[in-house]
Amino acid sequence: MTTQPRKPSPRTVHRAIGRILYPFLLLTAVTGLTFRLGRNWFGMSKETGAIVRSIHEGSIVGKAFAPIYVLVVGLALLVMIGAGVSMWRRAARSTPTAPRSRRWHRLASFVLAAPLALSAITGIAFRVGRSWLGWSEDGTKLLMSLHQGSWLGPKWRALYVLFVGLGLLYLLGSAAPMLWRLRGASATKRAASRSART
User: Fold this and answer.
1) Is residue 3 domain-resident?
2) Among 160, 136, 140, 164, which residue's Cα sits nearest to residue 150?
3) What is 130-171 written as a DSSP string?
4) What is the rounded distance in angstroms from the CA atom of residue 104 to the CA atom of residue 190?
5) pLDDT for 139-167, tens place per residue?
6) How many domains does the chain have?
7) Average pLDDT of the residues in 103-122
8) What are phi and psi of 113, to 5 degrees?
9) Is residue 141 included in any domain, yes or no?
10) For residue 108, which of 9, 117, 137, 194 sits 20 to 30 Å off, Cα-Cα?
11) In angstroms, how far is CA 182 from the centroid of its own chain?
12) Among 12-16, 28-32, 49-53, 88-92, where is mean pLDDT lowest?
């Protein structure tokens, strides 16, 4: 009787995508913060802003690449968020024994899940709509307003981007040691297994 392969757990999916997506999310957070704060607070020129934005959405490689890049990164982020949300109930039972850094990571993810999901969905809809579906600039104003917090008003837009961007950077920073330890532990297990067979 053959056994069916086990489905990957939400934790496995969350970690696997996190390792692949890490540099792209880091780039997204940094360029998003640089663009919005630079334009609102530091007098960044439109020309410099256009370059930063092209890096943010991948169009610096080519306009045809931008919707593909945004779609892949955005969908992967949404899957990560979904896997993380499904881990919350299980994590709540183990919170007292979990390391403090992991508990803070979970708390931050709980606060940031909705804003990050909104950023991913509106970013995908905006870029795919503009590039592939022929949506007009006026037709996508609402999406961009939701994406960068313009609906909060001019004074709060930059603060919203600052909150989401720094929050994402914190999640990435707090996740890095966990991912590094996991990779190190996996390598140690493989080495021990090889030694046992010889």
Assistant:
1) no
2) 160
3) HHTS---TGGGHHHHHHHHTGGG-HHHHHHHHHHHHHHHHHH
4) 30
5) 999 999 999 999 999 889 999 999 999 99
6) 1
7) 95
8) -60, -50
9) yes
10) 9
11) 20
12) 88-92
**How many other C-beta atoms are found inside a 10 Å radius of the C-beta of residue 31?**
20
- What's the average model confidence in pLDDT over 42-50? 97
Token code pair at residue 190: 């493989």
**Where in the sequence is the domain holding 110, given as residue range(s)?**
10-189
pLDDT at 45: 97
Is there a domain that residue 195 lies in? no
Residue 197 in domain:
no
How far is it, in rounded angstroms, from Cα 188 to Cα 108? 30
- Distance, CA of 30 to CA of 26 (rounded, Å): 6
